[in-house]
Design a protein that fits this description.
183 residues; alpha/beta; seven-stranded parallel sheet
Length: 183
């Protein structure tokens, strides 16, 4: 497994912030797995909005405890206790409604696995408006939100718009990670 020690700063400063983490493609999956593995162990509801993995795969990997997946990757199906399917990636209102439907708990952490994918299916204007309105709601409720994006896969204007509405920005995209496993 690749070293993800650079993400410790994100986890330490996570609470009641809206943050964006910019990564390169090689870091993306390992980074998300590391962060999810850490935060599902907390005594908070975690809502993971995924556009790059199926809800079933995420639940298999991290378990059902404290985790609800908003599945924007799979075709729309019947919702389960831990998975809410949205099907249409272009309907940002449906994404927000799915998050609200997923949990009525006050203290929650919401993680979006790919702002990059969201930017492919939605205009800059619509995505910017969604981020602005959603982040205001999160901040007013005292919740936590974390967006992941692959820097090379997203328009720079979209990144700049998202950064305006986030409390913290972490750009780890220039860190080259390689690992050698010795037994």
């Amino acid at each position: 497994m690749q070293s993800v020690s650079y993400l410790k700063e994100v986890l330490v400063n996570l609470e009641q912030n809206v943050s964006i983490v910019l990564l390169n493609q090689k870091q993306f999956r390992t980074a998300i797995d590391f962060v999810l593995d850490d935060i599902v162990k907390k005594d908070k509801q975690v809502i993971f909005v995924s556009f790059t993995m199926s809800g079933e795969e995420i639940i298999r990997k991290f378990g059902e405890h404290n985790l609800i997946v908003i599945d924007g990757f799979s075709e729309e199906q019947r919702d389960t206790d831990n998975i809410v399917y949205i099907g249409n990636k272009t309907n940002l209102t449906k994404v927000q409604m799915a998050i609200e439907k997923a949990s009525d708990k006050k203290d929650k952490i919401i993680v979006f696995d790919s702002l990059s994918v969201m930017s492919i299916y939605n205009s800059k204007k619509d995505l910017g408006k969604f981020i602005y309105l959603f982040n205001n709601k999160i901040s007013l409720e005292g919740n936590t939100c974390l967006y992941f994006a692959t820097k090379d896969s997203i328009d720079e204007d979209t990144v700049e718009t998202a950064k305006q509405f986030c409390d913290k920005t972490y750009d780890f995209s220039d860190i080259y990670i390689s690992s050698i496993h010795v037994k």
